[in-house]
Amino acid sequence: MPAKGYVEIDIERCKGCDLCVLSCPTDCLALNISDTNSYGLYYAYLKEEDDCIACMNCSVICPDAAITVYKKEDQPKQRS
Amino acid sequence: MKKGYKLIYKRPQTLTKTRINYCPGCFHSTMHKLLMEVVEEMGIQEKTVGVCPVGCSVFAYNYMNVDMQEAAHGRAAAVATGIKRMLPDRYVFSYQGDGDLAAIGTAETLHACNRGENFTFVFINNGIYGMTGGQMAPTTLEGQKTTTSPYGRDPEKIGLPLKMAEIVSQFERVAYVERVSCNTPANTRKAKKALRNAFEYQGKKLGTTFIEVASNCPSGWKMTPEQSLKWLEERVFPYYPLKVFKKPDKKEV
Amino acid sequence: MGEIRLMKGNEALGEAAIRAGLQGYFGYPITPQSEVMEYLAQQEPHHNYVFLQAESEVAAVNMMYGAGGAGARVLTTTSSPGFSLMQEGISYIACAEIPCLFCNVVRGGPGLGTIQPSQSDYFQSTKGGGHGDYHTIVLAPNSVQEMVDFVYLGFNLADKYRTPVTILSDGAIGQMMEKVELPDPVEYKPDKPWATTGKTKDRERNILTSLYIQSEDMEKKNQKLQKKYEKIKQNEIRFDEYKTEDAEIIIVSFGLSSRVSRKSVDIGRAQGMKIGLFRPQTVWPFPYEKLREYADKDRVKFFISIEMNAGQMVEDVKLAVCGKKPVHFYGRMGGIVPDSYEVIEQIKKIKE
Ligand SMILES: Cc1ncc(C[n+]2csc(CCOP(=O)(O)OP(=O)(O)O)c2C)c(N)n1
Ligand code: SF4
Ligand code: SF4
Ligand code: SF4
Ligand SMILES: [Mg+2]
Known about the structure:
The complex is a heterotrimer. Chain B is α/β, with parallel strands linked by helices. Chain B has one domain: Thiamin diphosphate (ThDP)-binding fold, Pyr/PP domains (Rossmann fold). Helix content of chain B is 38%, strand content 20%. Chain B contains ten helices and ten strands. In chain B, helix 1 packs across helix 8 and helix 4 packs across helix 5. Chain C has two domains: 233 residues, Rossmann fold, CATH 3.40.50.970; 112 residues, Rossmann fold, CATH 3.40.50. Chain C has twelve helices and 15 strands. The mean pLDDT of chain C is 97. Chains in contact: A-B, B-C. At the B-C interface, strand 2, strand 3, helix 3 and helix 5 of B face helix 3, helix 4 and strand 9 of C.
């Protein structure tokens, strides 16, 4: 089943504060600690692409407004 | 955008493109974002004027894409009074720290509230002087260590932390007082709603609106952002409960 | 011709402000200035301005900042201790370049001092007063008429240069009754594209700030201010003279003490002394050049600065005269106004 949503994280705005990771109900976010942005900071990324439910918890709590959220469009109902 | 998906959240246009320079996890950033989301959603960018006094958020005008005045330390309420009295149909807010609003600027705060100045206070109570490097604030908790209370705040010597939301809700002409936080998504949503309420009441000229944010200062508290959330829950909220202290009558709204 | 009335200096100042298009007044009571506030409080319902009694002078000056920054024509009045409290705010206003008009109805200090008239705030007013490199334009009236005229002038200069302007009055001029001609009311239409009135779509946001955290930026800002001050020095120096054409002795005096000194000129001349009076109307910028011209004239023997303080403007007179001629000083303090004969006695002593 395709994911209900996905997020894009502006890694230059991200400061690696971890608040989004702590707030994601499906644990699909993580901090990338093997790389840094140009400010030398770790950044968050969508680790489990299939698990995002587009709940917006991450974008709501992200202090730096670094997260953009997309939601799967409702499928038109099939006539039966 | 991936096919079959729609955009449901993006950074508000009312924030400038400048990268916000507050420390990682600092609620100053969160509150900037929420404020500007409210301004965008209400469509009032053209009618909004902000005041940012000295404190970490003295740079707010770099980030908020609205007309702004920087103010001297403690004087935001007087400056906002001046603006609002001249431009009564604009949405005016002052964005102040606890040192600013509750120590050096207490007189201006209380008198603006007593007059019922029709602007919105956004009061960032992080229990510390963030900008100057973590000194004790009027809101530092009992026993809390700061650079100028290295053995912990001693109430015998300096009194107990000031409860501004409780104090200002006593004033007749203050319309709306709520204490909020940004420690969880749910609380952050409530914080945004509170800002929205405040601006709407201001638009209806109901009197002073006052949003206190039980905020954090990971750098000044010498904590990770995650630890700062724990401190908020364990230490701050019991003393500074999150709640609506006062709101306008239903028929006024 | 405008309307002629007999008025107290402080009330005349208030009335002039209304006629000049006042939009916001913010003040805190203090003797001997309170009549301005009281007058403006009384008149408020009949006009289109906001009168607000602030909780302190600190609040008042910051309300000025906010209201002036919102583009309004704003005034505050105070007296010495209150003016001291306003200095931080004035420094911010100077740096953020917000037009504001101040009137300091000076009383004797230091400390709580006396409510009697004085000129002991000359240094504070003309040398900046608060922190940082800045000046306000300082107008020194010596009559009720000039209280009126300098309100119009002060508002206009404030707008023209985006700068705070101070009317340096004193308790006596504030309290005295004189005949004044009140100019016709003007319809004030501010043209202030920099004001924080709300960011419309056709412009970038307006920011009023005095914060320049990078040294290079702060220096640039200072250079901009200094350039403005140079322009003000070139264009806005004002002074008045009395019998200086042939004077051998030049009294330099401003405000109330210049009224005394004017009489001394007549008394001295009746006794055969060729005395003249040079009266700066702007004490910042100070009319250095004009005084220097007199210092260069052979006939001029010496200068004497007559003040109601321990000797403040005399330093500017010395700077102007630049050692070319002797510069003397006579003053009274604590709210005492020297009388014209005292001044003549001093001049006689110097001549011996
Ligand atoms: C008159 C004056 N006194 C002191 C300062 C130094 N100062 C700058 S910010 C600040 C404290 C800010 O603390 P707060 O208002 O709590 O804001 P925060 O940085 O914590 O957000 C102080 C004391 C100043 N700028 N002006
Ligand atoms: S939208 Fe919800 S589920 Fe998706 S990443 Fe953000 S917090 Fe996790
Ligand atoms: S909350 Fe925002 S800034 Fe913090 S780690 Fe997540 S994306 Fe980065
Ligand atoms: S010092 Fe504290 S209040 Fe200031 S930006 Fe950093 S975390 Fe935020
Ligand atoms: Mg603080």
